[in-house]
Design a protein that fits this description.
single chain; 243 residues; mainly alpha; Endonuclease Iii, domain 2; Endonuclease III, domain 1
């Protein structure tokens, strides 16, 4: 259900409340290449399985030139924990080959160049900008799309529309945090079905009292990469000596 006509809460209030509930972690980072490949591996895969597959892959192929020289038969056994490995292996190899051929083996730092790579959509490209380079960008998945509409920030039909609307709405200083905060919030409380509105820390949410709430809480927040997506995944991989 769409948000009511009540005034949407200010982005600053939302970010402050969610930062208190989901405090930022400190630690290593995966770097642009590993962030790019790990994001592709993470599609339709849980974070812990992605981390396992990515750690095995990067131990054998730590950079674009080495992965570009690999064959799918060599890569598939390494990324098997991630699922859909037969489809993902040729994609990440082709990404590596394009990086070598078109970008000197380095991951580009701009959205349009990232989107030119095979298998890279806007969410993946924005994840690379935020988690790989530390640049302001807004990765939008189903959680970010859903919650942005519930908050009344946007009235959009697709994640792509939501990204563009949020870029126009949110101050750039909030861009790097908004994905991780809203995803954690969407998993624990603001779930797709049966959100836990009585426990919501966001005062003034225009959807409060309109949505049919649920009795069971979603995935509880716990610090670590299993909860914090690509940002935490980068820390996990960095902590394992593959940064």
């Amino acid at each position: 259900m769409r948000a009511s006509r009540k005034v949407a809460p200010a982005p600053s209030a939302v970010v402050s409340a969610l930062r208190r509930r989901y405090p930022p972690e400190t630690g290593g980072a995966a770097g642009p290449f590993r962030t790019l490949v790990a994001t592709v591996l993470s599609q339709r895969t849980r974070e812990e399985r992605t981390a396992e597959a990515a750690g095995r892959l990067f131990a054998a192929y730590p950079d674009a030139p080495s992965l570009a020289a690999a064959s799918p038969g060599e890569v598939v056994p390494l990324i098997r924990p991630a699922g859909f490995y037969n489809q993902k292996a040729p994609v990440i190899i082709e990404i590596a080959r394009r990086l070598v051929a078109d970008f000197g083996g380095e991951v580009p730092r701009d959205l349009e160049s990232l989107l030119s790579l095979p298998g890279v959509g806007r969410k993946t490209a924005n994840c690379v900008l935020v988690y790989g380079f530390g640049l302001p960008a807004i990765p939008v998945d189903t959680h970010v799309h859903r919650i942005s509409n519930r908050l009344g920030w946007v009235r959009t039909r697709s994640p792509e529309e939501t990204e563009l609307a949020l870029r126009a709405l949110l101050p750039r200083r909030y861009w790097p945090d908004i994905n991780e905060l809203l995803v954690l919030f969407g998993r624990e409380l603001c779930r797709p079905v049966g959100p836990r509105c009585p426990e919501c820390p966001l005062a003034g949410c225009p959807s409060r009292g309109i949505l049919r709430t649920g009795r069971r809480k979603g995935r509880a927040y716990a610090p670590g990469f299993r909860s914090s997506l690509l940002g935490g995944l980068g820390k996990a991989l960095g902590g394992r000596g593959v940064s």
